[in-house]
Write a structure and sequence with these properties.
Layout (H helix, E strand, L loop, with lengths): L2 E6 L3 H10 L5 E6 L40 E3 L8 H5 L2 H17 L11 H13 L3 E3 L3 E3 L5 H14 L3 E3 L3 E8 L2 E8 L2 E7 L1 E4 L6 H11 L3 E3 L2 E10 H8 L6 E5 L6 E8 L3 E6 L4 E6 L8 E10 L8 H15 L5 E4 H6 L5 H5 L11 E2 L8 H17 L9 E8 L3 E3 L12 E3 L10 H18 L2
Parallel strand pairs: 1-2, 1-10, 2-6, 10-22, 18-19
Antiparallel strand pairs: 3-5, 4-13, 7-8, 8-9, 11-21, 12-17, 12-20, 13-14, 14-17, 15-16, 18-20
């Protein structure tokens, strides 16, 4: 009789767990996801970044996870978007996982083109960065594009279905119970409760579903540690400002330490000729970005994030980040805030008139002009202003008065589940993977942790 494996979450971690397990015919594999199938995840993101406020949100949930409608950047380094060497304890194993993830994406239609940059251009950018007190991280990358990522994900899903993997969509997991030697998962589908039993459970809910796992942690006795989160804005500039660095690296990573507080600030998720988009969470909104291969804008955008770490007696960075997001949502009337950098620097709010006369025309229209300093704490605002001014030395124009800032952009990695090298928790046969459990911060690392979880189950059944 086949052993049943239930996977909560159809994002990269969940899909790649199923992919690895499906190579063995010992398992009955079922994937539950709160969202819709990839073909039904429609949102007019390509043009305005508007959000239909779908329930569940098509941007955040569904086959492929939130990355399915994102830029589709594959960072092919084990220490970017996570730390696979730390998780596995082996550098060769870490790189092998990255290559395995890459090969599967290529098999299902990811482009062969690799953005790696010429050595002389890389060294020149590194020299300029060092002169400005900035660290530039060089990464081999593939750019799938948000218009082609669903095609790649759909190919993976069909492959898995042909291998016998069952997808249960619009299935909102609400409870996990341990009963003797198996797990009982309760989920809602069309407001009707269902239960499913499983010998093995892989929980890979993604960042948008991390609240679900947090609600189960105390009841199940899962061991966790609190860790940092990133809070900041999405920066939008003219595409010509970013082009010199895009020619070197498709999604450049810059690390900066702020002058006043010596806090860590970083760029993340650069979308050249892309669009800013709204994300609708339960009780608050956020922003993100994406870009396509066929449809281009005149702008480029990137996340600009300040690292936040809390220490005893209050260590719950996730709750802290959510409270900031809710304040920003109130100030924006349910929409993200938008502000010109010049206005933020001068301590005044942006008005609709000031946004209209800006040299940069926003790609996200569903916003409220306002004052980001009323939503983000003073320390974070100071970090962002100082670091963006420093980045302007390397990329002239990013620190201009017309540069647009959207808030809030928050990356929640505040809870990290304690796991062994195969992603197994302190509860036997309960594995976790991906961003929502604090083990990764990008598509490749998320997928790799999914493979590790599957390898843990395969090891037990060998």
């Amino acid at each position: 009789m086949k052993k049943k494996v239930v996977i909560i979450g159809a994002g990269p971690a969940g899909l790649f767990s199923a992919y690895k397990l499906s190579e063995n015919d010992k398992f009955e594999i079922i994937i539950l996801d709160r969202g819709r199938d990839v073909d039904s995840r429609k949102c007019p993101l390509e043009y305005t970044g508007e959000c239909n406020n779908c329930n569940p949100c098509n941007v955040l949930y569904g086959t492929g996870g939130s990355g399915c409608l994102s830029d589709g950047i594959l960072n092919l380094r084990p220490d970017i978007g996570g730390d696979l060497e730390e998780l596995t304890g082996k550098s060769d194993k870490a790189m092998k996982l990255v290559n395995e993830v890459d090969s599967i994406f290529l098999k299902h239609g990811a482009p062969e083109k690799l953005f790696i940059g010429e050595t002389e251009m890389i060294e020149e950018l590194q020299r300029k960065a060092e002169a400005s007190g900035i660290k530039f991280i060089q990464i081999p990358q593939r750019h799938i594009g948000s218009d082609y990522t669903p095609v790649v994900i759909n190919s993976m899903k069909k492959y898995l279905e042909n291998k016998g993997v069952k997808f249960v969509m619009l299935a909102d997991a609400t409870k996990i119970e341990k009963v003797k030697n198996y797990y009982v998962i309760t989920y809602l589908q069309k407001n009707k409760p269902y239960k499913i039993e499983s010998e093995y459970l892989i929980t890979a809910p993604g960042r948008a579903g991390s609240n679900f796992l947090m609600s189960q942690i105390n009841e199940l006795g899962i061991k966790v540690v609190h860790q940092s989160i990133d809070i900041g804005v999405r920066v939008e500039v003219s595409k010509v400002v970013m082009k010199p660095v895009i020619d070197v690296n498709r999604d450049p990573k810059f690390h900066i330490y702020s002058r006043t507080y010596d806090d860590f600030v970083r760029t993340f998720c650069t979308n050249h000729e892309g669009y800013v988009m709204k994300e609708q969470y339960d009780g608050y909104v956020g922003v993100n970005g994406h870009s396509m291969r066929d449809i281009k804008s005149q702008n480029s955008n990137f996340a600009f994030l300040s690292r936040v770490t809390l220490t005893s007696p209050v260590e719950d960075t996730t709750s802290y980040g959510i409270s900031i997001a809710k304040i920003a949502t109130v100030l924006g009337g349910g929409k993200p805030l938008i502000q010109r950098f010049g206005d933020l620097r001068m301590g005044r709010r942006s008005t609709p008139e000031r946004i209209r006369r800006s040299n940069i025309k926003p790609t996200l229209l569903s916003t409220t002009p306002g004052d980001i300093a009323m939503a983000l704490p003073y320390r974070i605002v100071t970090n962002l202003i100082e670091s963006l001014e420093r980045l302007d030395n390397l990329l002239p124009g990013v620190g201009s008065d017309s540069t647009l800032l959207y808030a809030p952009e928050i990356k929640f990695y505040g809870i990290r589940v304690k796991v062994d090298s195969f992603m197994e928790t302190n509860l036997p046969n309960l594995f976790v993977a991906g961003d929502g459990v604090g083990l990764s911060r990008d598509i490749v690392n998320s997928a790799a942790t999914g493979i590790l979880a599957a390898e843990g189950i395969l090891k037990k059944e060998s």
